[in-house]
UniProtKB/TrEMBL annotation:
<feature type="domain" description="2,4-diaminopentanoate dehydrogenase C-terminal">
    <location>
        <begin position="151"/>
        <end position="358"/>
    </location>
</feature>
<dbReference type="InterPro" id="IPR036291">
    <property type="entry name" value="NAD(P)-bd_dom_sf"/>
</dbReference>
<dbReference type="Pfam" id="PF19328">
    <property type="entry name" value="DAP_DH_C"/>
</dbReference>
<protein>
    <submittedName>
        <fullName>4-hydroxy-tetrahydrodipicolinate reductase</fullName>
    </submittedName>
</protein>
<dbReference type="InterPro" id="IPR045760">
    <property type="entry name" value="DAP_DH_C"/>
</dbReference>
């Protein structure tokens, strides 16, 4: 019998999740909640770009979805970042309220909404307590993940750590060229590209990097038995060597055209766990910074320095926009987790509380 699933929100990630639920042979879409009035009343297929209608009509009424009693809801509401990528506590609290309503009603939740919940131990403990209480009341499970933060920082580096004799440092890097991304609000707003080189971009304001990626630094450390002394944030910007134009607009010479940042988990004065992002507008920019994995414009790299040293590279060839597969993979991480989450004991969980999440049932006949 198929697992009955609802989808909550259809932004970039939610739309991919919706499409993936519809196509998944072990899942059945039974309801859809949207926030955009223009989407209300539309068939789910139309919203996510499929040709064959599903008969599932979008609503803005969360209670209507709860009344359908799905086994699980894929919750992709924007619960972490507000205007210009700056965290707003109200959005997290609102997302947690909706998630608690679902969990109390006996509906399991897989989510990308509140990023720090990838490591519940270092997330907002008031929110964690509310979710745990809702899970106990409803006998349900809540799992938050994605790609980055998410899969690239849990299963991959920890699996690689199992073939080492000594670990000095684990570094997980995203290396991307965002110049083809036609999203001015993110390019100039969140990342501050095109802004003066001495202006702090919103993503690098104190505390933001730790909120976004400190959770996975702590998750890796916890799984390695490390007690971190602290976490540190670091960033540097790259000035455009000349004026150039990208789909999102014109970048003036001397303004910001790249950012490299790190969140470092410090043990005994040394960076033991590091999450790094290298974000350029063009592949050729900042040539002294790390290059993209396996010689392409974007991807991920896991490096273990120790005995022996290991480098694992994951690329996304075949996409003009390297952010596209990342957004899709963020959705697929939670959609493919639904069968194991539905079967799991109640509580707020991480991947290490669950059986391995695989593509079971997805091999083409």
């Amino acid at each position: 019998m198929a697992i009955r699933v609802g989808q909550w929100a259809t932004g970039n990630v939610g739309k991919n999740a919706l499409r993936s639920i519809i196509s998944h042979p072990e899942l059945e879409l039974v309801g859809l909640v949207v926030s955009d009035p223009a989407k209300v009343g539309k068939d789910a297929a139309e919203i996510c770009g499929l040709d064959t209608p599903t008969g599932i009509i979008a609503t803005d009424d969360g209670d209507a979805l709860i009344a359908l009693k799905p086994d699980c809801v894929s919750f992709c509401s924007a619960g972490t970042s507000g205007r210009e990528g700056v965290t707003t506590g109200n959005r997290q609290s609102d997302a947690a309220d909706h998630m608690c309503d679902l969990l109390r009603a006996g509906i399991n939740v897989v989510s990308t909404a509140i990023i720090p919940l990838v490591h519940p131990g270092s997330a907002d403990q008031e929110i964690v307590r509310r979710l745990e209480a809702a899970c106990r009341e409803g006998g349900t499970t809540c799992f938050t993940s994605g790609l980055d933060p998410g899969f690239m920082h849990d299963i991959l580096p920890l699996a690689l750590s199992g073939v080492t004799r000594r670990i000095d440092t684990i570094r997980v890097s995203e290396v991307m060229s965002y110049g083809v991304w036609d999203k001015p609000d993110a390019i100039t707003g969140k990342f501050g590209f095109g802004k003066p080189i001495d202006e702090v971009p919103p993503i690098a304001r104190p505390g933001v990097l730790d909120m976004m990626w400190g959770s996975v630094v702590r998750l890796i450390a916890e799984q390695l038995g490390l007690k971190l002394d602290r976490t540190e944030e670091y960033y540097e910007l790259y000035p455009a060597p000349e004026t150039f134009t990208i789909p999102a607009g014109t970048i003036v010479k001397g303004s910001s055209a790249g950012i490299r940042f790190e969140v470092r988990g410090i043990v005994a004065g040394k960076a033991a766990v590091v999450v790094e992002h290298v974000t350029r507008l063009r592949v050729e920019d900042a040539p002294h910074w790390p290059k993209g994995p396996i010689g392409i414009g974007g991807g991920y790299r896991v490096q273990i320095s120790g005995d022996p040293d290991w480098v694992l590279e994951v690329g996304n060839p075949g996409y003009a926009d390297p952010t596209v597969p990342g957004t899709l993979a963020t959705a697929l991480r939670i959609v493919n987790a639904i069968p194991v989450v539905v079967a799991a004991p109640p509580g707020v969980v991480t991947p290490f509380d669950l059986p391995m999440i695989t593509g079971k049932g997805l091999v083409a006949a």
